[in-house]
Design brief:
334 residues, alpha/beta, Rossmann fold, 12 helices, 36% helix, binds phosphoric acid mono(formamide)ester
Length: 334
Amino acid sequence: MSTAALAHETVPSHWRHRHLLDLERLTPDEIRTLLDTATLFKEATDGCRRKLSVLNGTTIVTLFFENSTRTKTSFALAARRLGADVIDFSASSSSLSKGESFIDTAKNLEAMGVDAAVVRHQTPGTPHLLAQHLSVGVINAGDGPHEHPTQGLLDIFTIKERLGDLAGATVGLVGDIAHSRTARSNLWGLMKLGAKVILCGPPTLVSERWRELGVEVSHDLDAIVPRCDVLNLLRIQFERQNTRPFPSVREYAHLYAMTRDRLKRAKKDLLILAPGPINRGVEVTAEVADCPQSLILGQVANGLAVRMAVLWLTCGPRSTTRTGGESSSATRIY
Ligand code: CP
């Protein structure tokens, strides 16, 4: 999509999705559209600091059934930067406690005129279920260990800003692959854009079966570090594990934490990413988390641009009539 198309204020006609449920089912071109739109919004808002009015009159509800610092705040800010109203639905103080079903709750919110729901839930597939029952847009903000599409997009956006092109880049996803929705969204997005993906972690958290998707599996971080252009360091998701997958956190950190010594053996321009929250001393040491190659806070900043793009593409005005290549939309972005 061009800057001109954004200026005309309508979602590009080739973008046909009302929901963003996962990256697995998006085409490479659709992922590129999301990333290009994020770039345009970042530029059009001076790095996401300036407000636009392209979603004036739109109401977004955030439905978070799991804790969040980054994703929820980022979606709320992104929506406000676009001119939308934001409702923060609190599950604990809602009538869910009186026995109302999740679907009925969502339908009631829809009846109040909400235009899109941003959903985080511990059960995989919850956003997909909601999308079957609601006529408004549904955006997956993390469904259990399944997917976290906007995290995958913002990670890829951050890599692309530095490397330009992902084709041929080697990206190591290190840590708790078994329970990580971020790993899955990264995996699909990176593979579709031509990156080489290495999944690395203990055998209890990185199954050999992943090879069937065409990715490399390694249980030896020291062996893969020198080959990687990017390392994305994933948190151990203790809250999703029934049994401890390694003898001790100390042993895990000894084998899989990114340390200064390992950094010395890496390419000098290795990019360090982590989706957060980070556990300093477990998947990454403090000195690596804060080193110049660390893009961890840059990822968070880019999350705003990516979520602006997602909200606009899913909720923005669709062109119905076009004259001389221009849309009928009235609002303007610039
Ligand atoms: N990365 C991420 O999803 O962070 P939160 O859980 O804080 O939203």
